[in-house]
Fold each of these.
Amino acid sequence: MNFQFYTPTQIVVGRGESARAGDFAASLGQKAFVVMSRSLSENGAAKPVLDSLAAKKISCVEYIKPPGEPTVETADDAARQAAGARCDLVLSLGGGAVIDLAKAAAGLASNGGAIQDYLEGVGKGLQITRPALPHIALPSTAGAGAEMTRNAVIRSQQGRFKKSFRSPHLYPTVAILDAQLSLSLPPQQTAYSGMDAITQLIESYISRRATPLTDALALYGLERALFSIREVYKDGSAVEHRENMLLASSLSGLCLANAGLGMAHGFASGLGALYDAPHGKVCAVLLPHAVKFNRCAQLDKLARIGRLLTGDASLPKGDCADLLIQYLYDLNREFGIPADLREFNIPKDEHPLLIKMSMGNSMSGNPITITENVARTILEALS
Ligand SMILES: [Fe+2]
C-alpha cells in the first residue's frame, strides 16, 4: 500500500452552524469579502451569516456573483475589489460557482496579477506563491464539492475555454455544511447538482488514482446520495436528506481532489467550455454511459456500488453492476435529464475541437485509457 491523502480544510457539519460563521471568522480576519449568489442575498438565507460576522465586529464588503459560472472578467473584478477594500478574509455563500469565484478572489487578492496568467493551459503558467486570504465556504447546493478542492473553474466566453486556477493555497480554510442553507434550492438544480456529486463519487471510486481512503469516503457518500437524491427532488424540505446530499457532495470533493475523476468529467469539461451546458446535467447524462464503458475494467467496484442498491449479497457481480447502470438511467428519466447528448446539438465539425478540449486532467483518471479515437467513437454514439 502506498498513497497520500491531503486536506487542510476544517469541516463543520450541522444544521444552523452557518449562524456561527462569525465565530470561525473572528480568528481569521477583521474585514470580510463576502461572495454570494443573488438568490441567497434576497431570500434572507444570508442574514444569519452576516449577523454573526457583525456580532464579532467583522465588517463586510458584499459581492453578488453575476449569473453563471465565474468568468475571467468576474474573477479579476472580484479580486480587485477585495484587494482594493483591504479585506483580509473571504467568505462564500452559494453553489460551486460562488465558492470558485471566492477562491479565485482569495488567491489573486494576495498574489496580484490577472487570473488568465495563472490558468492551466491558456495562461503564462504562473503559480501563486503567497497564501491566499483565509476563506470560509458555506455551500448552499449539494453537488460540486468545491468547498473541499484546491481549484477554481474559470470560463471565458470569447476564448471558449473553461480552465482551472489551481494551487494548494486555494483550499478553503473552513467549510461549514449547514443543510438549512440548501432547503430553498429548486428541484431541477437539486437534481443537477446531486447528480454531479454522484458522478464525482463514482468516478473517483473507480479512478485509476483511487486509494483505500478515497474508496471508503466515496462508498459512504454513495450509500447516502443514491437514495437521498430521490427524496430531496420530491421534497426539498426533507432536511435529513439535504444533509446527506451536502455531506456526500463534500466527500465527493475530498475524493476528486485526492483520486481524480474519469471520462464523464472529461467530456463535461469540453462540453461546458464550448456550449454553456449546465455541468451537473452533462455529468448526469454521461454517467451511466461512463459506468457501462468501464464495466469490465472495474466490475468488482461497480458491483459493490450496485450492492448498496439491492442489499442482496448473493447477486452475481455482473447483475449488480447492471443494476447500478439501470438505476442511473432511471434517476435521469425521473429528473427529466436526457439519455444522450442529442439535445445539445453539437455540430459534427466541432467534434475534433470538443475532443481536444475534453482530454484533460479528468480524462486521465478513467480506468480504461481514452485515446482521441476512442473519445470520437463515444461522442458519435451519444450525439
Ligand atoms: Fe463535477
Amino acid sequence: MSSRRDFFRRLTGMGALMATSQLPSWAEDNPALFPQRGGFERLGMNYVAINIGLETPFSLLHISDTHLTAAYPHENEKKQKLKEVRSKTFGGRQEEALRDSLAWAKQNVDYVLHTGDIIDWQSEANFDLVKKYFGRELIGAVGNHEFSTDMWLSNPKEDRTEAYKDNTRSLVQQAYPFDIQFQSQVVNGVNFITLDDVYGYVTQDQVDAFKTEVKRGLPMVLCMHVPFHTENTWRVTCKFWGGNNRFTNAVVPNPNGDYKTQKTDSVTRDFIAYLKKEPLLKALLAGHEHITFQDEFSPTAREYMVAGNFLFQGQEVLFY
Ligand SMILES: [Fe+2]
C-alpha cells in the first residue's frame, strides 16, 4: 500500500492537463472531416462556465470516450476481430474525431482534458495512437476500456477488480504519461485532480491522496471516467442505456452497476459523502455514459458529463 503512495508522490511533478500550445498542428497535414468548415463547426460542442472567482480565466476542451479501434496486421486474431466489429460500433472515424478535437483545441482553448476510454481495448496500434496524439503531455483519467485486454474475448475475463487491472496495469501506465491512479496539477490556482474510478469505486489510497491535496487549500476540480452518480445522472443514464422507453415515471431507477457500487462500497460511499461537504470542490468532470449532462453535486460543485468523442462531441469548460 505504501509503495502506491510513493508512486503518487514520485509523479506529482508531472502535468495533469495538456497545454494546447504544445500540440502539433495535424490540421495542416491531414484534412479534417469537414474541410470546408475551417477551424469551427468540426465538433458538436457543449459550453459550460464555472465561476471560481479567478484572477486569470482560462478554458479547456473536455473530451471523453473516443474508443479507438486500431490493430496492426501482425496483431493476433482477437485484435483483428475486435477491429472489424468495434470499428462498426463506433463509426470507424474515431481517429479523425480525436484529431479534429485537438486541432480545434489548439486554436480555441488553453488545455485539453480526456476522461478515459480513449481506446476501446488494448492493442499495440491503439497504444501507439495514444502516444502519437498525446506524447508525454496528455492528461486525463483512464477508463474501463483502457484495462480491457479483448472485450468479451478477454482471458482472464474482466471481473471489474483491482486484481484484473493488475494484469496489465504497467502496460497501461507505460502508454499514458500521467499517474493513472491519481494525479494533481495546479493551473492558474486551480488544483485539477484526476483519478481512476473505472469500475465505479475508488481506493483508500486515492482517498488519502485527495485529502492530502485538500490541505493545499486551493479550489479543486475532480476529473474521472465514471461519474459520481446523483439521482439525476442515474435517471438519464438509465434512460439512455435502457433501450426504448419514454419518460413517464420520475421514480429513480433502482441502482445497479456503478451506482450500486458507489452506494455499497464503503470507501467510495464515504468519499462521496465527504466530497459533498468539501467547499473547495468546485466541479466534477466525467464521461463513460456517452451523454452530455450536468447536475448539482454539492452546494459548491456541479458535475459535468460529456458525450462520446467518437461522435465528434466535446465540451468547452470556461473557468473564471
Ligand atoms: Fe467507459
